[in-house]
TrEMBL record:
This is Purine nucleoside phosphorylase. GO terms for biological process: purine ribonucleoside salvage. Homotrimer. It holds the Pfam family PNP_UDP_1. Its EC number is 2.4.2.1. Keywords: Glycosyltransferase, Purine salvage, Transferase. Residues 29-281 form the Nucleoside phosphorylase domain. Phosphate binds at S35, H66, R86, F87, H88, A118, S222. SUPFAM superfamilies: Purine and uridine phosphorylases. The purine nucleoside phosphorylases catalyze the phosphorolytic breakdown of the N-glycosidic bond in the beta-(deoxy)ribonucleoside molecules, with the formation of the corresponding free purine bases and pentose-1-phosphate. Catalyzes the phosphorolytic breakdown of the N-glycosidic bond in the beta-(deoxy)ribonucleoside molecules, with the formation of the corresponding free purine bases and pentose-1-phosphate. Preferentially acts on 6-oxopurine nucleosides including inosine and guanosine. The lineage of its organism: Eukaryota, Metazoa, Chordata, Craniata, Vertebrata.
Length: 294
């Protein structure tokens, strides 16, 4: 890693301090909105919002469907911060930049991170419009050393060799399924394994078949680095993939995926995703956060 890519503890702290000087909200929960899912921020009450371009140290969103705003507010009595737009490796950001907000959230006192994304389905049982609760992930870039934790370890955030088993909180996954039943949308939901690939191109048929054989249920281009960094600094994580398309696995299939279609499914399912996230945040327990990374 080149030194220009490194971000010091002070850099994260400066951004956190700036945000705390601009808003009275002290969020317990952070939400990262995936492609087409930015409307999650609209449900927050008593909003304070900041364009990424106005936040010292923040990267900029370049992808259509990622507005580039950080929104603070209340949801069901819990203080939240929501990223309307995330950063992807394929935009040219370093992985440390991609995950920069997660460590800032930790310094703000956040204890639970919600990650959402748009993903293509490889599992036969997952259809466009379905919602997958992420049970686990395969971080393909991470497996070959493209990991935000590479480089000097910042012991104030977490250990050199963090465990990743159990990084998607089981209690929150169970509660989400219970809420889905109560909302009458359990038929749309199942748990599965998400895989991150680098993008920005969608999969070839041979790549799709490979991922399918490896046991991947849904594939996308984000999330895993954020979850790795969140787990490293002790955040509890809950993740949802909105299935926006079937990944083409047959040479006879003439379908092909495009980003506009991905955003459209996001819009169609926005209400259900919003309801689920709102109820889950309302019903989950929050521990007293001692903010031990500060
Ligand atoms: O930010 P997410 O992971 O939801 O975005 C997915 C992956 C690509 O960025 C884009 C492809 O349409 O959607
Ligand atoms: N890699 C990948 N990312 C996606 N995001 C939404 N759909 C897809 C897909 O089919 N493949």
């Amino acid at each position: 890693m080149h030194s220009k890519d490194q971000i010091s503890h002070d850099d994260y702290q400066k951004t956190a301090d700036w945000l705390m000087s601009q808003t009275k909200h002290r969020p317990q929960v952070a939400i990262i909105c995936g492609s087409g899912l930015g409307m999650l921020a609209d449900t927050l009450k008593c909003q304070d919002s900041f364009a990424y371009s106005d936040i010292p140290g923040f990267p900029q969103s370049t992808v259509q469907g990622h507005a580039g705003r950080l929104v603070f507010g209340e949801l069901k009595g819990k203080s939240c911060v929501c990223m309307q737009g995330r950063f992807h490796m394929y935009e040219g950001h370093s992985l440390l930049k991609t995950t920069f907000p997660v460590r800032v959230f930790k310094l703000l006192g956040v204890e639970t991170l919600f990650v959402t994304n748009a993903a293509g389905s490889l599992a036969d049982g997952l259809q466009p419009g379905d919602i997958m609760i992420i049970k686990d992930h395969v971080n393909f870039p991470g497996l070959v050393g493209l990991n935000p934790l590479c480089g000097p370890n910042d012991d104030k955030f977490g250990p050199r060799f963090p465990a990743m088993s159990g990084c998607y909180d089981k209690n929150l996954r169970c509660l989400a399924m219970e809420i889905a039943k109560q909302l009458g949308v359990a038929g749309l939901m199942q748990e599965g394994v998400y895989a991150m690939v680098g993008g920005p191109n969608f999969e070839t048929i041979a790549e799709a078949r490979l991922l399918h054989r490896l046991g991947v249920d849904a594939v996308g281009m984000s999330t895993a680095p954020e979850v790795v960094v969140a787990t490293h600094c002790g955040l509890r994580v809950f993740g949802l993939s909105l299935i926006t398309n079937k990944v083409v696995k047959s040479y006879e299939d003439l379908d092909s995926v495009n980003h506009e279609g991905v955003l459209e499914v996001g819009r169609l399912r926005s209400h259900t995703v919003q309801q689920l996230v709102t109820e889950l945040i309302g019903r989950m327990e929050i521990n007293n956060n001692t903010n031990n990374a500060a």
